[in-house]
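Thread: quick sanity check before group meeting

JM: Hey all, I'm pulling together slides for Thursday and realized we never actually wrote out the predicted structure for the chain we discussed last week. Dropping the sequence here so it's in one place. If anyone has concerns about the input, flag it before I start.
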Amino acid sequence: MMRFARTASLLVLLSCISGSPSLHAQAYPSKPIRMLIPLPAASLTDLVGRAISQALAESWGQPIVVENRAGANGTIGMEACSRAAPDGYTICMPDGNVMTLNPYAYTKLPYDPLGFVPVVPVAELEQSIVVKAALPVNNMKELLDYARAKPGQVTWGSAGAGSTMHLYLEWLQAKTGVRFNHVPYKGPAELLRAMAAGEVEVTNLTTGTIAPFVRSGKLRMIAVVTGAKRTAFAGDTPSLVSQGFELDFRNWLLLVFPKGTPNEFVNRWNTDVNKLLADPAFVQKVMTAQALTPMGGSPQELANTLEQKRKLAADLARMANLKYD
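JM (edit): ok, ran it. Output follows.
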């Protein structure tokens, strides 16, 4: 009887230990992980995703394989993410526009835009409003006065309908009554070439992207989109907010899991990615070179950020009459 009691107690103990979340977390990962990125290779999202994957793979001793599923403004990749097994072995890295604009730009999505588990906010993309060097303006007031005197003639380039550049244009036009001539391009690369060649007069792009053209004198920054604060990336360029415009709609990067992924995997990724974002060497190598600002934070903070940015996205989509389908 005593032997039976000891055996039963031992089985209960082993059962409790084997079900312990801490031991599950310690055993994870036990096989390769897939990171789905719903944007093209060589995009900023891809660059940061691969850097995080490489750093964690080295730390964890298991490969993290990056898989780009680009197309349809991130819809293809996020549908694949939504259908993945919620076992901690598929994680997804969209940008903020994919998560906040798509629900308002598509009549119907092939996935639930709220059906993902927030993991961690990763980085903000600082953006700057720039003009071609020949344009006689040095700040937002001068730009609007110049455009007001030439209604519908000053060209504002964008990376296509619904891009961040286009939404800034629509917001400014709605708030000021000034009309620009919207010139859409197929993507940021084409837009940048057009700006550098002087084909269009105004746009907003990430600070890291346009910095070489500002240094060469082809473009001039007249406002930096950083909320109320200044950063080291844009020199003495005043922020958009400091010039009287409260819009702060920057693109940003984040990590999410498919719906139903257990908290132990969420917490493991959150803890280790936050460590990377606090590592000066990682930030300098991966973020600073691209004028990215590391974010970091808890899953709940990411959930709150998503909620706030979706409200702003809804307003912008309405202003721009944004429809992707």
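AS: nice. The domain at 32-124+251-319 is CATH 3.40.190.150 (D-Maltodextrin-Binding Protein; domain 2). The longest strand covers residues 116-125.
JM: adding both to the slides.
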